[in-house]
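Chain A, query sequence.
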Amino acid sequence: MKRWQKIVAIVAAALVVAVIVLSFVADGIITSKAREQAQKLSQEWGRPVEIDSVATKLLTGLGVRVSGVRIGAAQGEDVPLVSLERVEVKMALLKAIFSAGKTVEVKSAEVQGLTVNVERLADGTTNLQRFQDKLAENAEKKPEEEKKQTDLSFLRVDHAALKDGKVAFLDKATKGAKELAVQHLDVTVNDLRAGKPLELVLKAAVLADKQNLELRVKTAPLPVTLTPTPTAVALHVDPPIDIGPLGPFAGKDVGLRAGTLDADFDAQLGAAVPGGSGQTTVKGTVKAAGLEFAGAEGGKSLDVTLDTDIKGDATAGDVQIDKLRFDVGPAGLTGKGSAKGLNTPTPRIAGLTVTSHDLDPALLATYYPPLKKQLGGMLAGPIGLSLQASGTQAAQALELRVDLTPVKVTVPEQMAKAAGAPMTLVAHAKGAAASGGPLKFDAKLDLAGVDLRPGKSVDKKPGDRLDLSLEGTRTANKSSTDPQQRIEIADLKAHVIDDEIQGRGFVEMKGAGPRATRQFDLTLASSHLDLDRILIPSTKEKDKEKKPLDPKTFAGLDGHAKVTIAKLTMKKQTVTDIVADVTMHEDDVKVNTAQLKAFGGTVSASGSEMKLAHPKEPFHVVTKLDNVGLENLVALGTAHKLLAGKFNGNIDLRGGEDLEKTLAGVLDGHVLDGIFYGKDMVASVSGPLAKALPLGLAGKEGQGGSTSLGKDLPFGLTIENGLAKLKSPIKISRPEAEMTFAGGMRVDGALDLAGTVALSPATISAITGGKVKPSSSIPVNLKLTGPAWSPTVTDLDLKPAVDQIVKEGGAALLGRALGVDSSHAQQAAEQKAAQVQADAQKKASAAAAEEQKKIEQQAKDRLKGLFGK
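Chain A, predicted structure.
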């Protein structure tokens, strides 16, 4: 037995020695890695970062001590930004090991000897401000995935503390300035973990030798991101603190010169905030007195006071306001009265009222000049704000009124409102049949006095009707870790100038942080919308490229929407019976149903899909048109007169951000009784040909006019990389000529077609004044280029046609017409034809270049707006 005891003792001693040796080795490795990381941070932050050592403990549980941490001075600074004597962390090693890192429990974390030096430099900035700017700059460079909120539910901290810390304020910009300090700084945090409430205690000596400030904060149970929602805040300052000396460190933009801070305030919010529970009490005073700011009108000083004595029970719907006073200089907010049973059908309200007075931002800016810059002249005049009981004794509710009628409002490039023009919000809230049930509400927003024309989108002038009213209910739980809220809209009405929109639906929000979801279902309807009356036509200035929408805006979003419009007027065209039914998953929008009646036919875009915040990813547009009038349809996209007739066909397009390079798909259909307004193709050939011949009519050059496309013109387009090509040549049969065209067009509307116009014997006879009537049609080759609404005929090849007409007419007849010997008639005719052809080509090239220059940018801008891209 003794022998085994010796063996066990030797083994135990060996293990102890091994652990000690392992600890020394680990210390060296960890210290080396820590210094590597410090060097990396030095480069990122532009200031030296140093760590003296990192020591580990293994025998009594995993522990780490970090000693000698310094964030040094950057260029132009004299003192380190941060110096730290040591940080000691003790962890539950076995939990971390057996959970594979999924549970990291910190038993304690204590910081000792922390000093932060806030140095005000000669230019008025501080080293801390520079450091914050550098961090923000580095954060912008990080990939989007690193910016997402992090799930920290694996982390638990039983106890964390900062002991006897110090923040020193060093004013190097003012000669003879003394060092100021917030010292004896103690911060304690206990039980930091998801699903548990948090309590933080901060004590400090602000510009004093003894602690004179204490702040206590309690929170609702923390979500997985560990973002706190306070349920209790207590602030005590004794004696009052002279904060004037800290003014220079607040920055030039603030300009604080003098003032004192005093507080004896305790707010227990309880069930009034998500995740809280119990009674609500807010009592005490916070006062900032004698605040003086550089540039204040007449050297005015500002007092800011919050004095409260409020009790309540959010669960029962009770509130008692014995005192509510919030003063900011001449402006203020006061309240008094009580209410019981706000969560029941019969609340009892006794003189409950909260009202504002002299709440004029422009007036407050005379006391606090930075406010003037922040407002930018947007608001001037007293804002009316009141909350009080409303209704009869049998059916009472709370009424909120916000009246901006006396206020002058100017939001550059968005809206304007003159003082005295109506702008009001009236809202009511009433409890449900039982405590905890849905809160009923209604609201009406009246913007009749607003001028939206500065935004260059909505043609709403002062006096035009613009209002929104809604009724609904709101249901929410009290959880902060898994908050849920549902807003039901039972009735929504909006009037926009002479039109009305009605709707209903719901929005539901669940969860917090990266797990948060938003779901909606909306139904909207209108009997008539006149967009020509409501909207201002776009301009070049407004058509500037905008940044793509942020995908994070749509994170966790799912929903469905249905819109029906009986009649819609747009660009002087009218469409009816519009039905659109779409579903949305984040920024991915799918069109289940989209159909309307227009121009004698029907249009359907069911099956289309696109992503709102990923312009580089392909969209898909599917459209079916039945018996649709082309002239009216084309008018929706361009003011140019292009086509007439009826269209039956299908469009299937896909594309990405750059439509001119990515647009692809097919278009198949039939044009019935079509007319092409861009060019009289017969005259475009017969006119120059007539000029090339001395045998009769001078003809017309055909720069205007139109071309009939026949009773039924089938055609198909294949679109790839932004270029549309005809699947097979277009063939147009007219008594005057047989026409064939092949080629394609760019998505900006520029044609590139090669074709043949074969003039009939009757047309040739008319050109030659009846002197020549060939036995068959005479073809002329050409190209059609430039914008579709004003194309140019180029590469007009007249020589073969001239030769054929000469042969058909005979040399003798041609010689007499030209006044030359018949043996030279052929040569003379060819020379004249060549000259006419050259002149026509030169004129066509010049016209095409000029026209293309005018319309190219316009067409490109229109394409960028197509499908929201």
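The radius of gyration is 40 Å. The CA atoms of residues 725 and 744 lie 4 Å apart.
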